[in-house]
Amino acid sequence: MLLYPFFYLFLQKEKWHPKAHYLNRLWGQLFFPLCFLPIHVIHQARLNKQQQYIFCANHTSVLDIAVMGVVLDHYYAFIGKSSLAKLPLFGYMFTRLHIAVDRSSRMSSYKTMHKALETLDKGRSLMIFPEGGIVSKNPPQMTPFKDGPFRMAIEKQVPIVPITLPYNWYVLPDDSGLLFRRHEIKAIVHPPISTQGMTIEHMPVLKQMTYEVIDNELKKYSFVQEKATEQAEKVKS
């Protein structure tokens, strides 16, 4: 609420939008310490702040969006579900600063793709959850990725940056409302995957490469595997 007047001001003109984006990062840097949720970010490679990227992360919690505001210091646009636009206060910021999509509408998906490509043309990066939402019934196990991010990356010859979020599904499960579990939040930002020279025929390979980078990282965390097994047993029972 304290920051919202500044959000509103900076959202009135597109040239001021980077300032609103900076406020998002500031909010995240204040919010998580106040909730006693430490964030540990591991950068496996140094990213060029002048380079555009399409960031792709696994998606298991509403916490993922807020975490990205802390993890990434690039000027990027989210592609997220249109229902986010209905949230009080946050919705206005989201529709002005990011890209909303109604996944049940082909026309909306087409318009979203067009707007995302325009965003890349303007020199801005994209942040996408390639699973297409929080859809896994057995987190942190991922579901197959959608084609969109990889099609755009190849068309614009923009690198893909995989990001692994191993604990968010446990800290704030999708079905828990706003009831946090106390645990470290971790994000692993992997080295970029180049798309230089790729054509649309390479899209399945690029998609699989990205999936495997994140999936292999998730498998390194014994805690994740133990909790995933517990979750699967609960579902079966």
From TrEMBL:
Known pathway: Lipid metabolism
Residue span(s) of domain Phospholipid/glycerol acyltransferase: 53-168
Flavoprotein in keyword set: no
Identification of the protein by name: Lysophospholipid acyltransferase family protein
Keyword Acyltransferase: yes
Organismal lineage: Bacteria, Pseudomonadati, Bacteroidota, Cytophagia, Cytophagales
An annotated Gene Ontology molecular function: acyltransferase activity
Source organism of this protein record: Rhodocytophaga aerolata
InterPro entries, per the entry: Plipid/glycerol_acylTrfase
Residues in the signal sequence: none
Keywords in alphabetical order: Acyltransferase, Lipid biosynthesis, Lipid metabolism, Transferase
